[in-house]
Amino acid sequence: MNALNRILTILALALVSPWAQGQSFSLAPLPYAYDALAPVIDEQTMRIHHGRHHQAYLDNLNKAVTATPALAGLSIEALMTQISKTGEAVRNNGGGHWNHTFFWQSMTRPSQGGSPSPDLLAAITRDFGSLDQFKAAFKSIGLGRFGSGWVWLIVTTDGKLKVTATANQDNPLMDVVSERGQPLLGNDVWEHAYYLQYQNRRGDYLDAWWQVVDWTVVSTRYADAQKK
Ligand SMILES: [Fe+2]
Question: Taking a C-beta distance cutoff of 8 angstroms, is the pair 116, 218 a contact?
């Protein structure tokens, strides 16, 4: 990063900081450029998805938290694990913030994402049969999520890997979902995630998305989950 980029980054962080806005949660810049995931995900989709959809979840989350003093100071993870007590606004918008932050961090430039670590690959093979069978299960569950939601790879409470789906902006950390676990990977199957480029072809989006999955990040999450 050159000096100008460093200064611009510092200014951007200052503008979105909680102190600048008087808010608890703020929008982090993407860890790559808006056009970095093309041609798998186009620049316009990324700009609208991050700058408008994610920003809207954040704005509404901050409004909801501000209106509920008992929630002040809680981390986004703490909110997720007791979402049954926070109300619908925090469930929808806090989920939207956590899910999208996790999603941005799960991706990298096409073909730069490496491969699952040996430990993660062994667990995938143990629980799905092979990496290809895992991907097929992920696609099937993603296609089967009727309406808006997310498809996940999680570590269950008994240490197994499992593919699950959640509705709307729910996620596997929430104490309201039927299958809880530690998320390793999640894909957004709301139409806003893919419609400009793929229209109604969710399956094509799910197939292409593997090209931008950052397996280094996913493998680190698996290693961290093993320590818990
Ligand atoms: Fe989204």
Answer: yes
Q: Which residues face 207 on adjacent strands? A: none
Distance 155 CA to ligand 1 centre (A): 22
Is the residue at 28 inside a domain? no
76-131 confidence digits (pLDDT tens): 999 999 999 999 999 999 999 999 999 999 999 999 999 999 999 999 999 999 99
In a domain, 34, yes or no: no
Q: How far apart, in whole angstroms, are the C-alpha atoms of residue 100 and residue 78?
A: 17
Q: State in Å: Cα 209 to ligand 1 middle.
A: 14
What is the model's pTM? 0.89
Question: Which are the contacts of 228, defined by CB distance < 8 A and separation ≥ 6?
Answer: 182
The count of domains in the chain is 1
Q: What is the CATH number of the domain that holds 128?
A: 3.55.40.20
Using the mean position of ligand 1's atoms as its centre, give its distance from the Cα of residue 49 in Å. Answer: 6
Q: Is the residue at 19 inside a domain?
A: no
Residues 171/99, Cβ–Cβ less than 8 Å? yes
